[in-house]
Amino acid sequence: MNRRDDRAQPAPLDQESRVVAQDHTALKLWLRLLTCTTLIEASVSQRLRRGFGSTLPRFDLLAQLYRAPEGLRMSELSRRLMVTGGNVTGLADQLEHEGLLLREGVPGDRRAIRLRLTPDGQARFAEMASAHESWVVSLLSDLSTTEQRTLLTLLGKLKTGLHQDTEQSMVPSMHSDPEPTPAMRRARSGRSPGTPRARRSTASGES
């Protein structure tokens, strides 16, 4: 008769595996947030592939177009999805081939392209979005409704602070060195106005 192994099973390896007891609480929190995000994305991605033969990037693009029935320029989609125009083009090619979106010209701008969902694309995304919501609800079900609301509020506070930090980091420092003027460049080189530059010696010794 086999004896049951009552030893504790090792925790699965993830982003938190690098944490040690002496680490700052903020670092532990960051790695836990990252781990939870990674696990949720992995689960949702797997279910999208299995249930709809789709991916998260395709889902995200369809979601943006679903919220904008009149369509969006490809440049605007790139900005909203925070990806390059090349990535949007590749996804659009696939979805257009499947009959889920249309490419249209933009009046007054011959270089711009607008993407818009077809009726099939709208119906397909609505089906995917319903399933997606049920998956996320299930994945977060270990937290009560009250706990979810508390966490949502706390993360909202954190998000606001992070946005402010990002905006401040983009403001040029008042103590940064100014762009040197022509006079400053001459002073650094030791030349006075009107002094010609010395000619470089050539390989033959001419000056």
Q: Care to describe what's here?
A:
The structure is a single chain. With 207 residues, the protein is mainly α. It has a domain at 23-140: Winged helix-like DNA-binding domain superfamily/Winged helix DNA-binding domain (Arc Repressor Mutant, subunit A, Orthogonal Bundle). It is 55% helix and 8% strand. The protein has 7 helices and 3 strands; from the N terminus they run ααβααββααα. The protein has helices at 25-52, 56-66, 74-81, 85-97, 119-139, 145-169, 182-189; strands spanning 72-73, 101-106, 109-117. Strands 1-3-2 form a 3-stranded antiparallel sheet. Helix 1 (25-52) crosses helix 5 and helix 3 packs across helix 4 (85-97). The longest helix is centred in the first third of the chain and has 28 residues, at 25-52. It is globular, with a radius of gyration of 28 Å. The N and C termini lie far apart (98 Å).
